[in-house]
Amino acid sequence: MKPLAGLDPGRSKCGLVLTDASGQWIEQALVLPAESCRQQLEQWQQQNDLGGVILGDGTGSSDWQQWLQTRALPVSVVPEAGSTLAARSRYWQLEPARGWRRLLPQGLRLPPRDYDDVVAQLLLEQHLGRSLARSQGCTNQNLARTAKA
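Now predict its structure.
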């Protein structure tokens, strides 16, 4: 089996995740500017021989589909409806609230960072029909803000 990537497309920033080769774990989770996301996908394709990309059908997805097809990457498009709200809830499962945030009801909590990577993970899970845990060594990078500065 080959690793899969999940992509929550956007014009300014994207969520991107990568599974391990068995498809059981999330190995990397990133929030990147669109151009950096393209570079990361190319790097993963070269290093890991990607089995495909699971793409959300939201903003800019048709441009992403065309770009991925030029890279000979298999693409599966999944609906994104409701994924942002679901990702907010899932964020707190992956990264439990600490400090004063624990005192707020979950519905009032806003994640302290962009969580497009969690949306990408949910899209991938929707496609696979099961939840994926993040590996112990999962790198979680949020480069969207630093790229704007």
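Residues 123 and 133 are 14 Å apart (CA to CA).
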